[in-house]
Amino acid sequence: MTLLLVAIGLGAGVLSGLFGIGGGIVIVPALLYFAKMSPQQAAGTSLAALVLPFGAAVGALNYYRAGHLHVRDALFIAVGMAAGAFAGSWLSTNMDGDLLRKAFAVLMVIMAVKLWVG
């Protein structure tokens, strides 16, 4: 199980560095299907992994050095994310797991279509 979790983290780290994604798009589905976690456990575990800033900080440092990081904007987003994560985690822990999984799938399809169409 440890190697599986490290592999999920490695994959999320590579994709996060490439596309700025990780938790919701990579880690949560991987934990659902490979680690057999409930949607709530996957979301909570993903958020906890993101609290440890090492991976994200290293990636952000490369973007900063290349002049592709707006620190002020990132700080404002972080404030919104903190409030949103609190509200979203409350909703998730009070929602049926099957409904949460389906809602997540709908969100991913909508985002994929929007990215594809432009």
Counting structural domains, the number is 1
* Global outline: globular
Average the pLDDT over all residues and give the rounded result.
Answer: 87
Largest sheet descriptor = none
| Terminus-to-terminus distance | 39 Å
Helical run tally: 6
Query: Beta-strand percentage?
Result: under 5%
N-to-C SSE series? HHHHHH
Radius of gyration: 15 Å
The level of helicity is over 70%
Sheet/helix structural class: mainly alpha
Counted beta strands: 0
Low-confidence stretches: none
Structural write-up:
This protein has 118 residues and is mostly helical. It has one domain (2-117). Helices cover 83% and strands 0% of the residues. Helix 1 (2-19) runs antiparallel to helix 2 (23-33) and helix 2 (23-33) packs across helix 3. The protein is globular, with a radius of gyration of 15 Å.
Write the layout of secondary structure elements.
Elements: H1 2-19, H2 23-33, H3 39-51, H4 54-65, H5 71-93, H6 97-117
Summed up:
The protein is mostly helical and 118 residues long.
Q: Keywords for this structure?
A:
single chain, 118 residues, mainly alpha, 6 helices, globular
